[in-house]
Amino acid sequence: MPADIVFRSDSSVELVNSMASDYQVTDAARISTAAWHGMTGPHDAAKDAGLIGYLMKNRHGTPFEHNAFTFRVECPIFVAREFFRHRMTSFNEESARYKQLDAVFWVPAPSRGLKQEGKPGHYIMKPGTMEQYKLACAELREAATVEYRRYERLLDAGICREVARACLNVSVYTSFYATMNARALMNFLSLRIDDPDNAYVTKPQYEIESVALQMEDFFFRKMPLTYSAWKENGRVAP
C-alpha cells in the first residue's frame, strides 16, 4: 500500500550523548603545569572562567578538544550535504542502500526567503510573494509525490534500494549522527549562524542555520563558561 507522504519545513536536533563540561577545558589546560584537579577535584568558578577566557582570547585551542557532543539530526538531504562539509566531525547517516527512505519531504516555511538578490557569495534573501510561496510549495509537493510513487513501484518490482533511490531528489529527509568536540562545534556555529556578535560576517542558508541554532542551545547548557567566552570573543573558534 502506498505510503502517506509527509511534508515538513523544519529540521530537528537531538543531543544523543555528551561528555562535555567546562571543567574538561580547564583541566586539560592545567595539566601542562601539573595543576589539574580532575573532575571530582575542587574547582573555583571564577578562576575557571578567567582561564577559559584567556584560552579563548589567545586562541589556545587544544584544551577545547577534550570533550564530545553526539547529535542526531533529521533534515532534508540538501541540508545534510552542507553539514558534511565540516570535516572535524564524525558522521554516520541512514543508508538508502539498506532501508527504504521514509516518505518525508521538505517544503519552504512561510518565513523562508524566496528571492535572491546580489552576486553568488554576496547575495541576500528577500521574502517572496504569497503567489510565489504557493507555487513553490505546490510544485515541490507534486514532484515529491510523483518521485516517491515511482520509488515505491521500483521497490515493489523487486529492484534494489540502491537503484530505486535514484528517483528521489534532495528534498527527501535523512537522519545522521554527528559527533564533534567543542572546538569543532564553535567553528560550525560561527559559520552557520548569522549573529550580531560575530566578528566575521557569515550568511548561512536558512535551513542549516535552524539546525545550528538548536545545537547552540545544547552547547550553552553543557558548557556555559566556554559559551560565554566564545561569544565575548566574537564567536570565533580558538
How would you explain this protein's 3D organization?
Strands 2-3-8-4 form a four-stranded antiparallel beta sheet. Strands 1-5 form a two-stranded parallel ribbon. Strands 6-7 form a two-stranded antiparallel sheet. It has eight helices and eight strands. The radius of gyration is 22 Å and the shape is globular. The chain has one domain: Gyrase A, domain 2 (2-Layer Sandwich), CATH 3.30.1360. It is an alpha+beta fold and 238 residues long.
Reconstruct the topology from this structure.
Layout: E1 6-8, E2 12-19, H1 22-30, H2 45-57, E3 68-76, H3 77-83, E4 90-93, E5 104-106, E6 115-117, E7 124-126, H4 130-156, H5 161-164, E8 173-180, H6 182-192, H7 206-222, H8 224-232
Parallel strand pairs: 1-5
Antiparallel strand pairs: 2-3, 3-8, 4-8, 6-7
Gyration radius (Cα, Å) is 22 Å
CATH architecture: 2-Layer Sandwich
The CATH top-level class label: Alpha Beta
- Overall tally of domains: 1
| Backbone structural class | alpha+beta
CA-to-CA gap between the ends? Answer: 53 Å
Low-pLDDT ranges: none
Q: In what order do the strands lie side by side in the largest sheet?
A: 2-3-8-4
Percent of residues in helices = 40-55%
What can be said about the biggest beta sheet? 4 strands, antiparallel
